[in-house]
Amino acid sequence: MLSRLVREHNQKQQAVRRNNEQLRKEAVQAVSEVTDSLADTLNERVSTILKTQREIESEARKLSSQSVKYTKQTKQWLSMLEGFNSALKELGDVQNWAEVIEKDMREIATTLEFVHKGTIEGQTITAEISTVSGDNKTN
Known about the structure:
Blueprint: H1 2-120, H2 124-138
Organism: Rhizophagus irregularis (strain DAOM 197198w)
Family: Belongs to the BLOC1S1 family.
Protein name: Biogenesis of lysosome-related organelles complex 1 subunit 1
């Protein structure tokens, strides 16, 4: 009877061991499948992130080169604008100079007309000047 009890006990232990081994294999298989599934999902996300990162870097390089281009163009425009402003100032100076010359020429023309009228009227201007200067000598 004792040997029968030992045999039954050994058989139950073997059955439990087989069952545990089967459950362990199933658990390992399930964990392996979950791990593979998670790894695939994670790899897809990482792949998408890397692709997006490359696109962003490419766009950043394009933006940088365009910024440099626009900076150069803006500097050229500023240089042209400074030249234009300088030319306008010079034109303003020329216009002012021309106005001063025109004013001086009008004064000269008026003076010449005055002198010309004086010589036509019989040199009254010269006579008046000589009498005025003669009066100064006697005093």
